[in-house]
Amino acid sequence: CIFCKIIKGEIPSKKAYEDDTVVAFFDIQPQAPVHIVVIPKEHIENMNGITADNSDVIAHIFEVIPQIAKENNLADGYRVVSNCGANAGQTVFHLHFHILGGEKLNTTMA
What we know:
This protein has 110 residues and is an alpha+beta fold. The protein is built from 2 helices and 5 strands, in the order H-E-E-E-H-E-E. It has helices spanning 2-8, 55-71, and strands at residues 15-18, 22-26, 34-40, 78-81, 97-101. The chain has a 5-stranded antiparallel beta sheet, covered by helices on one side. Strand 2 (22-26) and strand 3 form a beta hairpin.
């Protein structure tokens, strides 16, 4: 898994945040002026893999996202996106959340 290799330091990344539970890094193909990917260090395939045993990791991600957004000057707003499954556009099968911002974003969701 490419994200597991980033976590292990086998693939370099420009980190925006890291603690014992998560890593956040700048996307190499940004879809907005600020595009940061937040991943749990524990390999969870996607949202379908969230259970009572690991949901605390997801709660932690949503606790640090506002901090990451603030540190990256997204006070005017940002979007958080997670694709679940191939039909939704998931291309890396390690749960991740995109933080997008830095400009006024399109209001359509499709």
